Predict the 3D structure of the following.
Amino acid sequence: MSTYVERVIEETKKKNPNEPEFLQTVEEVLTSIAPVVERHPEYEKAALLERLVEPERVIEFRVAWVDDEGNAKVNRGYRVQFNGAIGPYKGGLRFHPSVNLGILKFLGFEQVFKNSLTTLPIGGGKGGSDFDPHGKSDAEIMRFCQAFMTELQRHIGPSVDVPAGDIGVGGREIGYMFGQYRRIRDAYENGVLTGKGLVYGGSLIRPEATGFGVLYYAEQVLKHEGDDLKGKTVVLSGYGNVAWGAARKIAALGGKAVTISGHNGYVYDPDGIVTEEKLNYLLEMRASRNANVKMYADKFGCQFFEGKKPYEVKADVYIPCATQNEVGMAEAEMIVGAGAKYYFEGANMPATNEAVKYLQDNGVIVGPAKAANAGGVAVSALEMAQNAQHYAWTAEEVDEKLHGIMKSIHDNSAKCAEEYGLGYDLVKGANIAGFLKVADAMMAQGLF
Ligand code: NDP
Ligand code: 2IT
């Protein structure tokens, strides 16, 4: 491997010892772009990799709010503006008790390459808070979102930084945050956030976009293998926004999602999450105050496996849609043991580096998160385009564009892998394709 890449990985480890998730993605990305770095000695002179792993700006702030009993509460808020070389910082906000700076730096770093892959002009960022929405009332969520935006608003704008949703942040939270932004700024700048409601500038298909995008990407991979999704069983994890969109499209393509999961276990539905009633129930669960995957088992009479992950269920295709590092070596061995040929990442970095390597070494085709789940942020960028035009496209127009973007992400990743003699390695191909555009833009813009 290039000594320059090795040196930067080592330096990054030394500088960020308490950020394991961030170090995990830095190691993964830098290792896979090593062949490109070797062809470009000018990168080292320009300290390109050292700049790439250092966020342009990190904002950390206090969020004070009042619960329904009148108690004052304090959470920590963040925005990591990672790289703005190809467009305004763009990426979601995550509200989850596990959120810390290292998690948001991993998400922001991945977002840089993902956003580059979409073909659209968006830089990479991520933010959020250690606030836990589980069990909170609607009024508490609103007060928290208002307090969070009261500080965040001074750092964002339609051509500066455009947040959206992620774990714990959906349409409701975006609505409360947009309301607060508008109140403080006194301007109708609805391009400042994406994932908005339709009546105030949201885009059709944005709620479905991440899940639909995963399946459009999967279709390209299956086509490459002379295969299709008809009759295939799929193990999904999560039951939130991404899992819902994926389950919908799996059903539409003639496949069958047989599991969903949450923090406390998974549900196995051998008949498949295929009917409108079941698919709509996922939305209801996610919106309920005490959201919990067991609700599905209780309602539809299926088995709930407490404290377990769904990877022990045999399937043709595996699509994690919950959180980071849910697939370790044990889960990767189960996927290989099931004889599955396909694994697509709806969640961000759902597998350890070791698990991804094991899957690939054992003949499973891996569709990495940066490529497979890029449909969400891609339609966010289409939402920005519609807001900038003060216009709205039809669902068909947005869906067609999303389809085209996912195809181009697949084709570009495959082409880059091929060009560097890596065969059909979609993981390295995606990293290289995403990196090349950002690197060109950074080199062209001089040192900063
Ligand atoms: P939601 O909040 O809608 O759903 C999150 C889901 O993940 C829930 O089922 C939740 O279960 C589960 N989950 C969260 N944390 C954990 C945990 N620590 N252990 C087990 N399960 C967990 O989020 P999204 O669907 O939006 O996000 C899911 C994944 O997809 C994340 O990795 C996100 O970064 C990624 N993603 C999201 C995009 C989007 O547009 N929304 C775009 C691209 C990627 P429970 O409630 O029981 O904790
Ligand atoms: O991880 C992601 O790509 C997202 N959470 C979506 C980000 C966005 O800006 O739509």
In short: The longest helix spans residues 395-419. Residues 96, 165-168, 170, 210, 238-242, 262-264, 286, 291, 293, 321-323, 346-348, 373, 376 surround NDP (ligand 1) (CB under 6 Å).
